[in-house]
Design a protein that fits this description.
The complex is a heterodimer of chains A (301) and B (204). Chain A has 301 residues and is an alpha/beta fold. Chain A has one domain: Rossmann fold. Helix content of chain A is 39%, strand content 14%. In chain A, helix 4 packs parallel to helix 6. Chain B has a single domain, classed as Rossmann fold, CATH 3.40.50. Helices cover 36% and strands 14% of the residues of chain B. In chain B, strands 2-1-7-6-5-3-4 form a seven-stranded mixed beta sheet, with helices on both faces. In chain B, strand 1 and strand 2 form a beta hairpin. In chain B, helix 3 runs parallel beside helix 6. Chain B is globular. In chain B, 46% of the residues are buried. Classes of the chains: A alpha/beta (301), B alpha/beta (204). The interface between A and B is medium-sized, with 17 and 24 residues.
Chain lengths: 301, 204
């Protein structure tokens, strides 16, 4: 889809619901500088969502959608879980895959888009929960990384199956007792970021979504690296406040507590040498763009 | 092949059968179908025009393929649809209310759609019931979503459905055109204009 296609037929403009008019007039499709700071001043690519009040996943969704470098040329692939309740409200092309198949679907999609649109950059972003990424879909996740498929995999890690009432998942921490896992987890949380690194991912981050600027940075980095070099993986802690017995307003604090040094979501990053080179180059370009914008502003004044 | 099953205004029942499964066939080029019977396109034009003129709330539901100006053809069709709507509005009596309600996309919107300003293919009856629509025309809706909606409407409402389809037509509509173009929509508008005053408006 090109940005030129996001135009309402003039004869139909007055009957279009306001959210669609806003998407055309006030969304940030095509903006080079789009980021989380647009939230509140421009039309977001997410309409009303159907997640629980105070759900950190909804924050994560908003930051991610605000940070995609080119939403008009991005296809997101989701899977079963709370995320699949949000995708219908999102102004970005998306596919709902069979539970666990998301990385296989994304592999085919990315290849097809490359053939269908030669010379155009089309980003594919997988966004799934820990059940889809690590348990049911681990085979597809790893195989995509082994094959060096050029797309980003984001795992919303809430450390259990929240959507179905709190069953144990591979990413649950050892000893945790959930509503439907009364004995408590008997083995350690699967160390997927490390597995991702060993499986060939070029950019891997493990963090929470408590800081929007950090989320923006890692989303942009991971997508740029995936475009040019190979697979990237982000594991973002989005706790399910209901299943861990917290109130709506306690999600943010839960994330802050979990990202302290030595905690399981303290910021960890792996960047391959190739990716480092690319990110340095991109950072230099960004610096130059900002300086040019500043000079232009000064000239106008 | 002719079918004994007729695609008629409902409410048929909760899950009406797909008309195709009951033997209803799609028309060939230059043809249309009315209630499942293949007819000449001109005949269908007249029946559709009369249906609009006789309805209490004749409504057009334009879908994404014409709401968005994604190519020149789509923009032309949008112009033609607007013209058809204005023509119907002009030709009906003050007791009738012509409407133009968009189906902007197919997302199952939650918590709900606003039935006054839009229609959603996953629960089209909300818009039809709310506005008391008794005749509607689908245009610019992707086939799969149109079939889904037309079946739901036939199942739960007494609304007469017309499909102005750009492809091969819809068995699940009570009247279906095929190969829709801007010219064809304009011809329908001309037909409505020509028949103005010759159709008895609904009684209060």
């Amino acid at each position: 889809m090109s940005k030129e296609r996001i135009k309402i037929a003039p004869e139909m403009h007055d009957i279009m619901p306001v959210e669609y008019q806003d998407l055309v007039e006030r969304a940030t499709y095509g903006s080079e500088t789009r980021g989380w700071k647009d939230i509140g001043t421009s039309k977001e690519l997410i309409e009303e969502h159907s997640l629980c009040a105070g759900c950190p996943e909804s924050m994560a969704f908003r930051y991610i959608l605000a940070s995609l470098p080119a939403p008009e040329d991005t296809v997101m692939v989701g899977s079963t879980g709370c995320t699949s309740l949000v995708f219908p409200h999102v102004g970005v092309h998306n596919i709902h895959s069979l539970f666990g198949n998301q990385n296989a679907i994304a592999s085919g999609l990315k290849r097809a888009l490359t053939v269908r649109f030669p010379g155009r950059v089309k980003d594919v972003v997988v966004l799934a929960g820990d059940g889809a990424t690590v348990d049911i879909g681990l085979d597809m996740t790893l195989q995509a990384w082994f094959r060096q498929e050029k797309f980003t995999t984001i795992c919303f890690d809430n450390e259990l199956y929240a959507n179905t009432g709190g069953q144990e998942s591979g990413l649950m921490q050892k000893g945790f007792v959930a509503k439907m896992a009364p004995v408590g987890k008997t083995f350690e949380k699967v160390r997927l970021p490390e597995i991702a690194r060993e499986s060939g991912c070029h950019y891997v981050v493990n963090c929470t979504v408590s800081k929007p600027n950090l989320v923006e940075k890692v989303i942009k980095n991971s997508i740029h690296v995936a475009r040019e070099i190979g697979p990237t993986y982000l594991q973002l802690y989005t706790p399910c406040i209901l299943e861990i017995g917290k109130n709506s307003m306690e999600g943010l604090q839960e994330m802050r507590d979990s990202e302290k040094p030595a905690e399981r979501f303290s910021y960890k990053e792996y960047v391959s040498d190739q990716a480092k080179e690319l990110l340095t180059e991109l950072a230099a370009k960004e610096k130059e763009r900002k300086a040019a914008a500043k000079r232009q502003l000064a000239g106008q004044a | 092949m002719s079918s004994v099953y007729q695609v008629l205004p409902g409410p048929e029942h909760f899950l009406p059968p797909a008309a195709a499964s009951m033997g209803v066939c799609l028309p060939d080029s230059g043809q249309a179908h009315i209630h499942g019977k293949i007819v000449n396109e001109e005949e269908a034009m007249e029946v559709a025009a009369r249906q609009f003129l006789a309805a209490r709330v004749p409504t057009i539901f334009p879908g994404p393929l014409v709401l968005w100006a994604w190519n020149e053809k789509a923009a032309k069709k949008a112009t033609a649809i607007r013209h058809l709507y204005e023509t119907i509005k002009e030709c009906v009596t003050p007791s009738q209310e012509a409407m133009l309600i968009p189906m902007p996309d197919y997302r199952p919107k939650y918590p709900k759609i606003n039935p006054e300003i839009e229609i959603n293919p996953n629960h089209p009856n909300l818009t039809i019931w709310h506005n008391k629509i008794d005749t509607c025309m689908f245009v610019g809706v992707h086939c799969h979503q149109a079939n889904l909606s037309l079946k739901i409407i036939r199942g739960g409402t007494c609304c007469y459905t017309i499909a102005m389809c750009a492809q091969a037509g819809h068995e699940d509509a009570m009247l279906s055109f095929r190969d829709a173009t801007a010219d064809k929509i304009m011809r329908l508008a001309d037909c409505v204009k020509r028949l103005k005053g010759s159709v008895k408006p609904p009684e209060d």
